[in-house]
Amino acid sequence: NYSSSSSSSLLLLFVLLRDAHLDVACVMGPAGCAHVNGFKVDNWKQNLRLIYQCFVWSGTAESRKRKAKSCICHMCGAHLSRLHSCLYCVFFGCFTKKHIHEHAKTKRHNLAVDLLYGGIYCFVCQDYIYDKDMELIAKEEQRKAWKLQGKTINALFPSGVRERYSTWEPTKRELELLRHNPKRRKMTTNCTIGLRGLINLGNTCFMNCIVQALTHTPLLRDFFLSDRHKCEMQANSCLVCEMSQLFQEFYSGHRSPHIPFRLLHLVWTHARHLAGYEQQDAHEFLIAALDVLHRHCKGDDNGKKANNPNHCNCIIDQIFTGGLQSDVTCQVCHGVSTTIDPFWDISLDLPGSSTPFWPLSPGFDGSAVNGENHTTGATTLTDCLRRFTRPEHLGSGAKIKCSSCHSYQESTKQLTMKRLPIVACFHLKRFEHSAKLRRKITTYVSFPLELDMTPFMASSKESRMNGQYQQQVDSLNNDNKYSLFAVVNHQGTLESGHYTTFIRQHKDQWFKCDDAIITKASIKDVLDSEGYNYLYIYTYTVGMESIQTFFLITAHTAPILTEKHRIVDIFADLLTKKI
């Protein structure tokens, strides 16, 4: 699968990246990878078509069976370690275990094709490459496979991620930029591109910490760096255009702190309740920012879905929107009334608040532990989620008319997750505001690096019997696993405080963003922090092989044209799987 919109902004970044402190992977000529010519000998087109027909796109049941039977690593016999096929001989090898790399080094066979996405990898350039002739063949064979399966592009991809599937043709200006910038940069695991401080413009730490979290949200980053936004309003008043510019600034390679004055002005314009220099709430800013971005993304959405005019398909909804199921059960006839509402985040109560709280552990019946508002032992994020999804008796003062027995009866209400978002945002209710009380709850809540949301799904309701939580010791469902990538913290009191953010840059590499200052942090620093907002990203699963979306996309973070097609395809495939 290749996607193909040309992007001037990406090419401009090549010039900026030239001065960044990155390792040089290779030097390409204006035509792209120079090593492709060694493959283009007699019958190369026929051989490439055969590989795509039999082992990549698999348009018929017979070819799919052949692929399942034949596509195993010739060294270890594995099926699911990102298999690649050598273009010079009959050899399949694991990419993750480097078996295809060993073959390439031994045989000097420099090119291989990814059997999952169809991308061509050059082992000399150490990157996926773009070649016009090869892409045309890949497109043709892909379309043939779709036609055999009776599929169309419209059916395969949501309108929000669908693009014109035509071959990318560089403009004269793009060709000129490529000629003047032949060097391609390889991202290293220690690369700090994307890390940039933000100047505090006067009590704007609440904005800076959320901007850091959003700019390090992998799929949102790839959307903007792929120049996917199509503005239908004046650019100087569009928050999405400003966010697009902000991403360009963050990933330009510059190290000096950025001054987000235009962003602040647009926030004040479109979310007037946040205007002014007084201290604001970071969670409130997150929701306001998502709302304005959602409203300004109309041009990227192609409108509403034709079969569901109430469903928005913009990038914000595709990444952040989940579905919350509410089941109200009549205590007399046991009839159930179900509604499903969209959500961008989940706000969770804390022990010590005025709202009754208790952890539900295996074997507990839901009664309060050690008093109504307190709990023994440490509190975890999972405890908060268990409480959020436990059945709640509404009481005699809140009788609801049952749709089954048509009478007003007492009932119970239970919230569960019907549909999970790609990025799950959790907010702890640390600030209490009432007529008699204004305070901050400083209870420490431990949170995991990896989170399994399976117990809180609507499909897992059978595991909750009579209000009890049944621990699932050995869950076989890998589709609801998440990985932490950002933590927003608040230090200080309700009246006077400061926001900072921990963000995950690479695997096990964390950084603390404190306005203009960026410092390296340990995992212990992150897990020991108080926590106010947590951002988790869906862990992508291919068969039995689990791949974190964060690292899958981050493997080629730099906006490189040869990789741009593949990033968008992984992006589209992920959204299609989750929505």
How far apart the termini lie comes to 19 Å
Number of strands: 28
Specify the CATH class of the largest domain: Alpha Beta
Average pLDDT confidence is 75
Number of helices: 18
Instruction: Let me know the CATH homologous superfamily of the largest domain.
Output: Cysteine proteinases
Q: Which architecture of the largest domain does the CATH hierarchy give at level 2?
A: Alpha-Beta Complex
Unreliable sequence segments:
1-31, 152-167, 301-309, 357-376, 462-477, 542-546, 549-579
Sheet of most strands = 9 strands, mixed
Structurally, the number of domains stands at 3
Task: Kindly describe this structure.
By secondary structure, this protein is an alpha+beta fold. The protein has three domains: about 10-185, Zinc/RING finger domain, C3HC4 (zinc finger) (Herpes Virus-1), CATH 3.30.40.10; about 205-300, no CATH class; about 315-560, Cathepsin B, Chain A (Alpha-Beta Complex). Helices cover about 30% and strands about 25% of the residues. The protein is built from 18 helices and 28 strands. The strands form eight sheets. Strands 10, 16, 20, 23, 24, 25, 26, 27 and 28 form a nine-stranded mixed beta sheet that branches. Helix 2 (about 45-55) crosses helix 5 (about 130-150). The longest helix is centred in the last third of the chain and has 18 residues, at about 560-579. It starts with 7 loop residues before the first helix and ends with a helix. It is found in: Nucleus. GO terms for molecular function: cysteine-type deubiquitinase activity; zinc ion binding. One of its GO terms (biological process) is protein deubiquitination.
